[in-house]
UniProtKB/TrEMBL annotation:
Pfam families, alphabetized: Kelch_KLHDC2_KLHL20_DRC7 (PF24681), LCM (PF04072)
Description of how the protein assembles with itself and partners: Interacts with RNF144B/IBRDC2.
Catalytically driven reaction(s): 7-[(3S)-3-amino-3-carboxypropyl]wyosine(37) in tRNA(Phe) + S-adenosyl-L-methionine = 7-[(3S)-(3-amino-3-methoxycarbonyl)propyl]wyosine(37) in tRNA(Phe) + S-adenosyl-L-homocysteine; 7-[(3S)-(3-amino-3-methoxycarbonyl)propyl]wyosine(37) in tRNA(Phe) + S-adenosyl-L-methionine + CO2 = wybutosine(37) in tRNA(Phe) + S-adenosyl-L-homocysteine + 2 H(+)
Protein name according to UniProt: tRNA wybutosine-synthesizing protein 4
Residue spans crossing the bilayer: none
Pathway involvement of the protein, from the record: tRNA modification; wybutosine-tRNA(Phe) biosynthesis
Family: Belongs to the methyltransferase superfamily. LCMT family.
Function summary: Probable S-adenosyl-L-methionine-dependent methyltransferase that acts as a component of the wybutosine biosynthesis pathway. Wybutosine is a hyper modified guanosine with a tricyclic base found at the 3'-position adjacent to the anticodon of eukaryotic phenylalanine tRNA. May methylate the carboxyl group of leucine residues to form alpha-leucine ester residues.
Keyword Methyltransferase included in the entry's annotation: yes
Alphabetically ordered keywords of this record: Methyltransferase, S-adenosyl-L-methionine, Transferase, tRNA processing
Superkingdom of source: Eukaryota
Length: 670
């Protein structure tokens, strides 16, 4: 548990070094320095902002009082006191920090040794007595085990804490490491001990969805299990916990809500542009698995709550499910190397033959960008996998992620865009050529050829997280390239009509309201036009719109498809059309109470139904984002290949094997 504190200090320090948070004291307290990934920086940024928001609000609302106190429980190597002191916010506030005796001793030694720190505290020269390892005028550092309440109370009193003074208690990822009976007792003790107090809690939530399972497993492996999750699995349970233990007011938000509601737009944009970033799914999942809670009692009404009541509709309202879809592991494909990947693309190149290319995954026991092609074929009633390594010129293929592949004939498919790293320009287009008589049991090699585009069409390829859709106009075949993002533009809203097979850029008139820019949306061919659904918009907010690009006599028209109930905004899903129904598969949304399963939209009536995926027969968490899916209409089955991602600091999760979803019960023909 103490190790997690040291690790988080290093992460906060790295985030400060990159400009996410302004804090010159972290580097003095963190000890070792290590540069973390952008995803980790964002995660620690939002944590710091949530705590700071509540602390500064408390200080602001109580500034006219003669005296206030802050009691930081399990403070570790946190710099809160030094930051507040440096900003001149502690005129009449004393900060008490409590942690394990050895942690408190280490921190006291650090402070005494560092001129910058000891000068701020104004070391009184009084050596720490017993559990009081450091004692300044307005800063006391205590070494006490939080589960020993009588010892805690005695030491606080000895250090000068006055329980009649309005007090803010802070527990930042601390209580969850204690047994529930002990953390509950601490929450109740605080309510009984302080007549006027606020309690600020920041910790994890939602243990049972796929991301939550990976998160729990990580902390178990560190031998620091998250105890509170089983009894308090969501924000509402935590709220009931505090209200039932003596606190009279309690507001709570997950971090997606906090980022959207409490961080000004210009600050959101500043953070979004600090570093090249392309891990939106994991960022939003991380944020839906952490919450900030502010409880209070005895405070004047004008002082509470420290968190605003939700100004936007709560994301967390449960999504009504119309039924469930069974998931099963593909027989005989378990353990197939090379299909554990994300950000790849899978496409049906012939009946019962699926080509998978690119992405990031696992090869020969290590994580890397995937160079090999994989073919899944069904020669005798079951799927088998073949890895194809030959004839792929490294430089041309470029190990790309977030590209698209469109099968344009019996003998060729077109690869469009994709990236290596988020700083790279898009990767242009490639032809993949395969023999007409490609044998399913022993597929021949796939030849790779660079496409030379006219200058007018080049920009169509320099993007990723876009869509490419086959369509027709006046009987001619076109490829419609839409949206995505590039190294320069975080979100694109443009489109290109490329006449196939020679891929010449064609100007075709389009009327109607232009959809807002997006990436990580879905696009399907339908009735000669294109259906665009969902995606992530300019403010990194999921979109819930569905558009149809419909053919008219002289061009196309954007039409909005109204869905009812409204489609829950999502992105990073896949989509298929079957008999007038649009099927959306997986993705990421902000409704933390469940993960997206299958959504069926009737394109005639607009009726929108959500189905949960029943994973009871899978032994591992099924992450349905950054996956690919192939719809097999004869079997009314979806084949899910790959999926997953880098789960914050909890490790990379790759769905270990392909999965089939049986849709026969929800696609009953009327």
């Amino acid at each position: 548990v103490q190790g997690t504190g040291g690790s988080s200090a290093v992460s906060k320090c790295s985030a400060a070094a990159r400009g996410y948070i302004q804090d010159r004291f972290l580097r003095l307290l963190a000890g070792r320095r290590r540069r973390r990934a952008p995803l980790i920086h964002r995660g620690y940024y939002i944590r710091a902002r949530a705590v700071d928001h509540c602390v500064q609000d408390f200080l602001l609302k109580t500034q006219s009082l003669p005296r206030t106190q802050i009691l930081s429980l399990g403070a570790g190597f946190d710099s809160l006191y030094f930051r507040l002191k440096d900003m001149g916010l502690l005129h009449h506030t004393v900060v008490y920090e409590v942690d394990f005796p050895n942690v408190a001793c280490q921190k006291a030694t650090l402070i005494k040794r560092m001129k910058e720190l000891s000068a701020l505290v104004g070391d009184t020269g009084r050596e720490g007595l017993g559990a009081i390892t450091f004692s300044g005028e307005d800063y006391k550092l205590l070494g006490v085990d939080l589960s020993e309440l009588s010892e805690l109370e005695r030491t606080l009193e000895e250090a000068g804490l006055n329980n009649e003074v309005p007090t803010l208690l802070i527990a930042e990822v601390v209580l969850t490491y204690m047994e529930n009976s002990r953390s509950d007792a601490l929450i109740q003790w605080a309510a009984e001990h302080f007549p006027q107090a606020c309690f600020l809690l920041y910790e994890q939530v939602h243990p049972e969805d796929p991301f939550g399972r990976v998160m729990q497993q990580h902390f178990r492996q560190l031998n620091s299990a998250l105890h509170s999750l089983a009894q308090y699995p969501d924000c509402e349970a935590q709220q009931r916990r505090f209200l039932g233990k003596g606190w009279t007011e309690c507001s709570v938000m997950d971090m997606n809500e906090f980022f959207t509601c409490c961080i000004p737009e210009d600050e959101q944009q500043r953070v979004q542009t600090l570093e090249p970033f392309d891990e939106y799914e994991e960022w939003h999942l991380k944020c839906s698995h952490y919450f900030v809670l502010a409880a209070s009692k005895g405070m004047e009404p004008s002082w509470t709550p420290l968190l605003p009541s939700m100004t936007v509709p709560r994301h967390a309202g449960p999504v009504g499910m119309a039924g469930s879809v069974p998931a099963a592991v593909c027989a005989r494909l378990s353990g197939t190397p090379g299909l554990r990947r994300y950000g790849h693309h899978s496409v049906l190149i012939k009946p019962n033959m699926i080509l998978t290319t690119g992405g990031f995954g696992e090869e020969n026991g290590r994580h890397c960008r995937m160079r090999n092609f994989h073919v899944l074929s069904k020669p005798a009633g079951y799927w088998k996998a073949v890895c194809m390594t030959q004839n792929i010129p490294d430089k041309r293929w470029g190990e790309r992620l977030y590209h698209t592949v469109s099968c344009l004939s019996d003998t060729q498919a077109l690869v469009v865009g994709g990236r290596t790293s988020p700083t790279s320009a898009g990767l242009g287009m490639l032809w993949l050529k395969f023999p007409e008589t490609c044998n399913a049991s022993d597929p021949d090699e796939v030849a790779v050829e660079l496409v030379s585009l006219q200058p007018a069409a080049e920009a169509a390829a320099l993007r990723w997280r876009h869509s490419t859709t086959e369509m027709t106009f006046k009987g001619e075949q076109y490829l419609f390239v839409y949206g995505g993002r590039s190294a320069l533009e975080p979100v694109l809203g443009d489109w290109y009509f490329l006449h196939t097979p020679e891929l010449s850029y064609t100007a075709i008139a389009v009327e109607g309201p232009v959809p807002e820019s997006r990436h990580s949306h879905s696009a399907c061919s339908w009735e000669g036009g294109v259906l665009i659904a969902g995606g992530l918009g300019a403010a990194e907010q999921p979109l819930g719109s569905v558009f149809f690009l419909r053919e008219l006599e002289h061009g196309f028209q954007w039409q909005t498809i109204e869905t009812h109930p409204p489609l829950v905004p999502r992105y990073s899903h896949t989509a298929h059309v079957h008999e007038g129904k649009l099927l959306l598969v997986g993705g990421v949304w902000f409704h933390a109470s469940s993960v997206p399963g299958i959504t069926v939209i009737d394109l005639t009536t607009g009726l929108c139904l959500d189905y949960v995926i029943n994973v009871e027969h899978l032994e591992w968490p099924l992450m349905l984002h950054n996956h690919s899916s192939v719809f097999l209409p004869n079997e009314k089955e979806l084949l899910i290949i790959g999926g997953g991602g880098n789960c914050f600091s909890f490790g990379t999760h790759l769905n270990p094997e392909p999965v089939t979803l049986s849709l026969s019960s929800i696609l009953i023909s009327h």
